[in-house]
Amino acid sequence: MRSTSESMQIFAAVVTEGSFTQAAKTLSLSKAAVSQQVKQLESRLGVKLLNRSTRKLSLTEAGRDYYHSCLRVHSEIQAAEERLAELQGEPKGKLKVTCTANFGTRHIVPAIIAFKRLYPAIGIELIMNDQIQELVAENIDVAFRFGPLLPSQLVARPVLKCPYLLCASPEYLQRFGTPRKIDDLKQHNWIIHRFSRHPNRTSVGFKGKIEEVEVHGDVITDNSQARRQFILDGLGMARIAEVDVRDELASGKLQRLMADHHFGTMELYAVYVDRQLMTRKLRLFLEFIQQWFETHQLSSANGQSTDE
Question: pLDDT, tens digit, for every residue of 281-294?
Answer without folding.
Answer: 899 999 999 998 88
